[in-house]
Every structure is written in C-alpha cells, then in structure tokens.
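Each field is set out as follows.
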Amino acid sequence: MKPFPIPVVSPSSSPLGATGNPIAGMDDEGLDFMPVPGPMETFHPPILPDPEAVAACTQGWAALEETVAALAEAAQGDSPSPILLNELPQADRELVSQLLGEGEVRITTTHGIVIQESVYAGVWQVRQGDEVHIEVGPLPAALLDLLPTLPSVTLPETAPDPLPEGVMNLFPVLAEIGAASAEVTPESPPHILNFTLLPMTPRDFDLLDAALGRGGVSILSKGYGNCRITRTGLRHAWWVQYFNTQDQPILNTMEVVHLPQAAQATVEDLADSRDRLTRTVREYREMIAS
C-alpha cells in the first residue's frame, strides 16, 4: 500500500535473507534471470449476489450503510464504532461479506484474532471466537488493543568476549534495535535497518532471530508481490520483508516503529473506499428498486 525503496545490489554481492540464505539467482556460477513479473494486484469489485435474492436483507443493507458512514468519519480522522454482525440473520451476514469481499491485507495472531481487510481499503472484518464485526480505520482497534498486552523480550546489553564463532555484526545490530525500541512513540518515524545491504553472516541472522523471537502477530499485504510483516518478541520491532510476484525476496528490513506503514490504510485510501462503497451500495439498491 506504501511505496518502498528497492536497493541497487551489485551482481558480485550476496545479500542474505532473514534466515541467512543468499537470495536465489545471485550465485557465483552466473546470473539466473527471473521470469517477467506477473500483474499487480489492483481493485477488483466483489462478486455480487442476485439483487432479488438479497432485496429483503434489510439488516445487511443497514450494516453496509453504517460502514459507508464509518468510512466518512475515518476519512476525517475520527475513530468510528465497530459494526456488529453477530445478531444479523445468516442471509444478511452473507450479503455484507459478499459486498465487502477480501482485499490485500490479512492479519493473524496467536490470540485467536483473525482480521481480513475487504476490497475497500480500511474496512476490516474481525473474527474473535464467535464474534464477528466490522472496523473502519487505518488498522483495526482489535489489533491496536492487543499489541500493548503482548510480552517483550530483554536483549543482551553487552557482547560476550570472545564472540561466538561466525558472528560479525550481531551485537551492534541488537544494540541499535534495543535503543531504537526504547524511544518509540505512536508518532515517531520508523527506524529502519536494511538487511539486504547490511553485512551479516548466516550465524548473525540465526542468533538475531533467536534473540528477537516471534511476537504473535503476522501481517500479509499483497500488491505488486507480497509484503510480509512479522512482529518480533521485542516491542516495536517488526520484520518487514518484500517479495516479488515469483515469491523471491527483494528487500529484507526491520522497522522499529509503533506500527509499520505498509499494513495501514491511508486517509486517501479511506476516502476512496468511501466513494467506491457508496457507489456500489447505491447502484445495487437502485437495481433492487427497479
């Protein structure tokens, strides 16, 4: 959803992924050219049901009208209330689900919360146990409320002497991440470490991954390729990794930030979604009335 810099990498270099493995196609035997990239993910209207079949779904239409109103609020910077779907009849819930469709971003947690963005950016269907509701905003409150409750690991303050075999830059990197994490506020810009360019050994990556661990939240954002965002066990430290349409890594970074921008809907996204959903609901209801 956000533009990101693609570093220039010389053919002689051997960039490493998060696991320390060289990126495919960059071996010493010669260049292995990647196939032509596939199409970029763009807005696709959801498949709509037969108008006559959903004409009587008054509660479903009301929930969609509430979603339009919530988008208008969110586009102005407000935080609208969630739209509850549990009490809707099954046909009405299916109508809402069909008209919203499935969009670019999916968020999963180890705490039983599953969040799917609709085809309208900034409109999120949130499932937690038996509860299903819609949230509208840059990111859903269900995620924002969860993050402060998650535990955070403690990083080593000093490097051992001697260093573990095969370690080169691990401990300066850990110190940088730890210091940046302690300074994060919701308003602060991201502190980014670009591991595609940073000299790190496979052993560095193994121990870095072990020290940071995983923090219970994974985000997949699709667009031109994929952006995979994984919360580490350290508060505010996120792996943000970009892959092309052949699922080969092209950029491997860590962002130390309150929330990575790549997963968030912008104000422009919210305004565009408001206009698109308004038009879809209006045209569909006109078909029903005709």
Summary: The beta strands are 83-84, 105-109, 113-117, 123-128, 131-136, 191-194, 217-223, 225-231, 237-243, 249-256. The chain has two domains: 51-138+266-289, 148-263. The chain is about 30% helix and 20% strand.
